Amino acid sequence: YMVSRSPEAFHKLLVDEKVTVLNQTPSAFQQLIAADLQSAKPANFALRYVIFGGEALNFQMLKPWFDRYGDAKPQLINMYGITETTVHVTYRPVSAADLRSNAASLIGVPIPDLEIVLLDEHLQPVPDGETGEICVGGGGVARGYWKREQLTNERFIPHPQKPGSGEKLYRSGDLAKRLPDGDLDYLGRMDFQVKIRGFRIELGEIEAAMVKHPAISQSLVIANKHPHSGEQRLVGYFVAKAAMNISEIRTFLGQSLPDYMIPAAFVKIDEFPLTTNGKIDRKALPEPGKERPNLSVAFVAPRSDTEKYLAEIWQEVLGIESIGVRDAFFELGGTSIQAGQFVARLYADLGEEVFVVTLFEKPTIEAFAKMLDSEYESALKRFFGGESSMETAASTVEQHIVTPEIIEKMKHIVPTVHLRDDDNSPKNPPALFILAPPRSGTTLFRTMLAGHPQLFAASELQLLLFNSLRERKDAFSGKWHVWLEGTIRAIMEIKNVDGDTARQMMHDFEQQNLSTKALYAKLQHW
Q: Per-residue b/e over 495-515, b at no fewer than 16 CB within 10 Å?
């Protein structure tokens, strides 16, 4: 037992005893690779097969092994299995070519006497390419749990494709998708599937993207609540071969992942803690600290009163103790929700509206402070002078409160948007009613973007949920299409064009897959 806990001692045992077949978890084999690389020369192994199981295998971690020993001898094999199905269920030989795969963790195909059906939450089969729960059938499936009838009925279900046959499927609680060639791509536990900012996320996809970075040898992503804000966030843990900064990781992940899948915090560790059976011990992982992360820019302390004021707010909102004036809000792990909290704090202190989009345009304290000093000079003087801004804020709020009398007046001045009838367009489209307040639509839209405390800006909230306009359009199809019309109306007001022109402009933006950040910038600068 003690030899198996020491990678160096276990490495020596494999060589001395001429072991031919090794079955390990990927995490344990990762440590064995590190022990092997301590020697300048390859070891005289007698290994014919190395079999992986017990947890997801990230193929990128095998690169040092393939560089030294190739992929023919020993043959590396990735297997998936569970106790309730007599352990092994799938089989897949691993080659050096798999290092170029974009999959999360390929586990191959079922062994001959078993089958795998991928089911959705309604226990219906999913099409190829879609994520589903791995359900195992065949000769190796157990009858159930001893004297636990309720749990047996929950996990061992009738085969949905063979009604009346008496055959059962075991619900594994694991997620996968079937690729066009029949290979199964393992995506992790359903327990590890999380929802961040309205998006359902497979943590295994983020882990697979992280280990594609040449300096990262191992990764793990978890979801937990931010200790300060209570907001659900992603935390990425990694083992790196060389020193690297968080900005570099964010930039790298941004090339393949949308914003909402990039972890808010990263933790570099020397090695992952393991349980007694060789799996990563998630409970033993360190919590992200409050210290400033290692960024690509050097720390520059706040200098002016405005910079010090902004730094204090960022420290409170982000839960970071020390923030430099050239640190970017979103590189520090900031989210759109925290951006809204920041803007709300500015409004409470200064009594004037500051647009959320400004933080996207001026993401550092240095740049944001220059903007405030230039455009909000009187508000800053009042704030730093100790005068209360509550009276000013209250009068501003009163200007925007919508009373029943105002609504009654609005009924008589509601314009309609006239679009030409297109013979090729779908018939019987959903009715569209656009309410225009008795003031500039442009001003109202910008007020909504500013996150006014007395105005529930649904358009702002749904825009911030999406990484690009194409994602937004796909999400708001069918009966939800009306959510797209508010932005079209804003373009009509700002650009002074008719409905057809505005709709075509929006269509062009969607075809370009323009990001929502870029759309914000356009709406503010037109």
A: eeeebeebbebbeebbeeebb
Burial of residue 420 (number of CB atoms within 10 Å: 0-12, 13-18, 19+)? exposed
- Amino acid identity, position 244: M
Domain endpoint, select from 398, 428, 457: 398
In the predicted structure, residue 164 carries a pLDDT above the cut 50: yes
Residue 378 counted as domain residue: yes
pLDDT tens track for 275-311 = 877 888 888 898 887 778 777 788 888 999 999 999 9
Measure the CA–CA gap between 339 and 361, rounded to whole angstroms: 12
Handedness of CA 71, 73, 74, 79 (dihedral sign): positive
C-alpha 516/C-alpha 519 separation (Å) is 5
| Band (518; pLDDT cuts 50, 70, 90) | confident
Tokens representing residue 517 in the block: 């950040």
Instruction: Give the domain range for residue 277.
Output: 207-284
Structure tokens at 161: 């494709």
* CA-angle at 517, arms to 515 and 522, nearest 5°: 95
Q: Does residue 332 share a domain with residue 271?
A: no
232 with 358, same domain: the answer is no
How many Cβ atoms are within 10 Å of 286's Cβ, its own excluded? 10
Assess whether 158 and 12 both reside in one domain. yes
Query: CB–CB of 41/81 below 8 Å?
Result: no
CA dist 357 to 193, 368, 463, 503, 518, Å? 30, 11, 12, 23, 10
Residue 80 pairs in a beta bridge with: 90
